[in-house]
């Protein structure tokens, strides 16, 4: 069954699109699971807290990368692969492309090393489709500020990085999409939720996956 990953800057609308698409799948009688990275397992959620918390010492860039990969390995072994083997559609908020974007692009760690660690952590598992919700850094910041002012949700350690960091991340996402257009779908995150879902549905229908 398909393994679909949703990527983009924070505030791009990944969670909203995932929820809408999950409802679409369920309306067709398809079995789904939504999950996320870092996290997705009890151990992964503990690692997520270590990575994103703003109090205490921050992990160094190499430590940060290794923590993400540890969470990912657990996630693949305990959640993603078992559900794919049961023929469930797996929808995941972030996956290995985020490490290329944030750790190679944002932190300037060797992309070759990031790719090698991704391959080890995933045991070679790759998504059939990665959906990138592309958003400018300025709009991402505006949406995050609105989220904090309206809901009181504080930025985590990664979200609070400088705009220059997030621009490097954005460009790294776009490069990955350009290098593998067969497995990536780039959507303008400034579109309405209804239009985003329509574009995603049309793209998935064009892939002629069983049941959709």
Average pLDDT value?
95
Radius of gyration: 17 Å
The CATH class designation is: Alpha Beta
CATH superfamily assignment?
Answer: P-loop containing nucleotide triphosphate hydrolases
Low-confidence stretches: none
Helix content: 55-70%
Features:
212 residues; alpha/beta; Rossmann fold; 5-stranded parallel β-sheet; 8 helices
Write the layout of secondary structure elements.
Blueprint: E1 3-8, H1 14-27, E2 32-36, H2 42-52, H3 61-85, E3 89-93, H4 96-106, H5 111-122, E4 129-134, H6 137-151, H7 163-179, E5 184-188, H8 193-207
Parallel strand pairs: 1-3, 1-4, 2-3, 4-5
Question: If you had to describe this structure to a student in words, what would you say it looks like?
Answer:
With 212 residues, this protein is of the alpha/beta class. It has a single domain, classed as 3-Layer(aba) Sandwich (Rossmann fold), CATH 3.40.50. It is 57% helix and 13% strand. The chain has eight helices and five strands; from the N terminus they run βαβααβααβααβα. It has a five-stranded parallel β-sheet with strand order 2-3-1-4-5, with helices on both faces. The longest helix is centred in the middle third of the chain and has 25 residues, at 61-85. The chain starts with a strand and ends in a 5-residue tail after the last helix. The mean pLDDT is 95.
Structure summarized in a few sentences:
The chain has helices at residues 14-27, 42-52, 61-85, 96-106, 111-122, 137-151, 163-179, 193-207; strands at 3-8, 32-36, 89-93, 129-134, 184-188. It is built from 8 helices and 5 strands.
């Amino acid at each position: 069954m398909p393994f679909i990953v949703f990527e983009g800057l924070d505030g791009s609308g990944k969670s909203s699109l995932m929820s809408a698409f999950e409802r679409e799948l369920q309306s067709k009688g398809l079995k789904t699971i939504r999950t996320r990275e870092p996290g997705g397992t009890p151990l992964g959620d503990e690692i997520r807290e270590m990575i994103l918390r703003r109090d205490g010492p921050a992990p160094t860039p190499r430590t940060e990368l290794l923590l993400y990969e540890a969470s990912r390995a657990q996630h693949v072994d305990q959640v993603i692969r078992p559900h794919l083997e049961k023929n469930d559609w797996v929808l995941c908020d972030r996956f290995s492309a985020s490490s290329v974007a944030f750790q190679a692009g944002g932190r300037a760690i060797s992309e070759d090393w990031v790719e090698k660690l991704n391959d080890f952590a995933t045991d070679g598992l790759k998504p059939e489709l990665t959906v990138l919700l592309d958003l400018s850094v300025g709009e991402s910041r505006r949406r995050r500020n609105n989220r904090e002012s309206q809901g009181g949700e504080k930025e985590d350690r990664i979200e609070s990085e400088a705009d220059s960091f997030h621009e490097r991340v954005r460009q790294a996402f776009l490069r990955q999409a350009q290098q593998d257009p067969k497995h990536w779908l780039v959507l303008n995150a400034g579109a309405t939720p209804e239009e985003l879902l329509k574009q995603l549905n049309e793209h998935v229908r064009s892939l002629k996956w069983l049941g959709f």
